[in-house]
Amino acid sequence: MTDSDQTTYDVAVVGGGPAGLTAALYTTRLGHDTVIVNRGGGRAAMMQDTHNVIGITEDVSGVEFLQTAQQQVQEYGATYRRGFVNGIDRRDDERFHLAVDDGDDVDVRRVVLATGFSDVKPDPPLPPTGRGLHYCLHCDAYMFVDESVYVMGHGDSAAYVAMIMLNFTDEVDLLTRGDDPTWSDETERMLDAHPIDVIDEQITGMNRGPDGWLESFEFEDGSVREYRGGFPMYGSEYNNALAADLGCDLNDDGTVVADDHGRTSVDGVHAVGDLVQGHNQIPVAMGQGAKAGIAIHMDLRAFPRSVDEIEAQGPVDPDEVPAVSQSLRETARAFREAEAAESAADD
User: Fold this and answer.
1) 254-260: average pLDDT
2) Per the confidence metrics, is the pTM higher than 0.90?
3) Does residue 328 sit in the same domain as residue 308?
4) List of E strands, 202-242
5) pLDDT value of residue 6
6) Which of these, 53, 56, 114, 256, is most buried using a 10 Å CB contact count?
């Protein structure tokens, strides 16, 4: 593991969103050779503006946010690859083999799955994502204070989101788009007690303003209703095929079962971000990635050598330290030198 063409690493992170990149940042800075294999795309990449990430201003797009993160982890010494992992096989108690679509396979000691999920989109007509079509209530509700809002869907989740939006605005419509409601009787009673219009007609057209934002929907009964934006609630499709193939336990909703540090039911495999249960938020995903990275470091670090290990292997020889690979040592030295040069230039 001493050159840039290495295909054997300590850690492989599958997925390049906030959770995966943060896990890679931690494992790399803690001295473990790390590769990120990212197919591209993802929910964070679709963000027109970044919300709820302290220190990141709203004018930063998801693509810009991710590009900065990719650059950071590479400057610390991680390898970043664009590719698709077709499969992961366990070779032995300490090794996994990742089959990558470019043919340059990878062998690793630990795997972090950060493959996320895809939101199920309703049929068009629809406004652009981030310009009237929004998937994160906790991120975007603030944008719609005192604005006219729609919620699309016909189940309990859609009904609840519609009622939640009344905390932010008094103009909320629930659009079933011709589908029969599937929410429960209890939810029906709750809806009846909240000032929400349930619109059953199908959408036949859409109008957008000069800024590209949604202005209104046209309905099959000829009516036109104005909206600033809204939330489709049709569920999620979790990208859990690799986890399932490895034998990781899954929850009923398709998420991967993981503990507070991302450990799955399969030793050596962690899952973080939108692939596990919890709030689908960038700061939450970053926290999960950090905790998984630290947990992996605790598992992989060479020192301190335990009493049992000392009895079996003997004391630590000076030639054995430091445990960081030569490539990471060189990168860390170059990073420090660049930082020092930049500081000197600022002075």
Assistant:
1) 98
2) yes
3) yes
4) 203-208, 214-219, 224-226, 229-232, 236-238
5) 54
6) 114
